[in-house]
Amino acid sequence: MLQPPRGGAGHGAAAADSGLMSIGTVLNVLRDEFPEVTISKIRFLESEGLIEPQRTPSGYRKFSAEDVDRLGHVLRMQRDHYLPLKVIREYLDAMERGEAVQLPALGRQRDGEAGAELLEGPTAARIGRAELLAAAGIEERELAEWESYGLVTPIEDGVYDAETVTVAALVIELGRFGIEPRHLRVMKAAADREAGLVDQVVAPLKRHRNPQTRAHAEARTKELAGLTVRLHAALVRTALGVRLP
User: Fold this and answer.
1) I need a labelling partner for 211 at 20 to 30 A (CA). Which of 23, 29, 51, 127 fits?
2) CA 148/CA 107 separation, integer angstroms
3) For strand 126-128 and strand 159-161, is the pairing parallel, antiparallel, or unpaired?
């Protein structure tokens, strides 16, 4: 069941008691729970109709506590449930109608005897092919095309890493700008090289017989993945001469 926002968004409600908030204040509030959120991300969600902040006569955005709570819902559904914006909008509309909303649970493989969760890596969550098609709002032919370019690869027959939903959503959004799946092969190749570099660094830890050391390998993988993503983004911004606020 979808719960009220937690963490940073909760602070937003308290902070807004005395009035509306600027986009900079909202950013600081949300970063407690969503450290990767940016002003550009908030503006993008507004452009997609997921939030509708008020505007001053000068054109500045002013956010209410409800706006911040809604942002928290959107960001949490993206982060925790890998949902594309189209599906998130449907959930938000249902909430506004007063309907009880049950978010999809992403299964994890479990040991049949002990019932213990098997953490095979930082992306242990799985999603079926039908679930992926529904969550991304795409047809079979589109998924088959993406697979032909290596953008989406099943872990096994009919089963995908849950992060594939995020990949699908981004491929769709890039398509709005005329960037076709075949154009994205270069990004996939770069991602594979970066992943290979990270794996090379943590491989000795993964092979260690000590369970604590293997757990440390998972934490190190997540840390390195975050750093490589940030570096990649910074290099792209530098190459394009783009500066985010």
Assistant:
1) 127
2) 26
3) antiparallel
Helix (H) or strand (E) holding 61: strand 61-62
146 close to 181: Cβ distance less than 8 angstroms: yes
Mark whether 15 and 90 lie in a shared domain.
yes
Tally of structural domains, the chain: 3
Q: How many residues does the chain have?
A: 245
Write out the two tokens for 81: 């449930």
**Confidence band of 3 (pLDDT split at 50, 70, 90):** very low
**Residue 113 covered by a domain:** no
Under DSSP, is residue 17 helix (H, G, I), strand (E, B) or coil?
helix
At 6, is the pLDDT very low, low, confident or very high (cuts 50, 70, 90)? Answer: very low
**Where among 96, 119, 141 does a domain terminate?**
96
- Specify the pLDDT at position 217: 81
If asked whether residues 170 and 204 sit together in one domain, one would say no
Q: How confident is the model at residue 8 (pLDDT cuts 50, 70, 90)?
A: very low
Lowest mean pLDDT among 10-14, 30-34, 217-221: 10-14
CATH number of the domain within which 37 lies: 1.10.1660.10
* 29: nearest Cα among 61, 68, 62: 68
Cα(99)–Cα(2) distance, integer angstroms: 11
- Domain range for 38 is 8-96
What is d(CA 220, CA 198) in angstroms, rounded to the nearest whole number? 9
d(C-alpha 116, C-alpha 40), whole Å: 40
Burial of 235 (0-12, 13-18, 19+ CB in 10 A): exposed
Helix/strand/coil for 63: strand
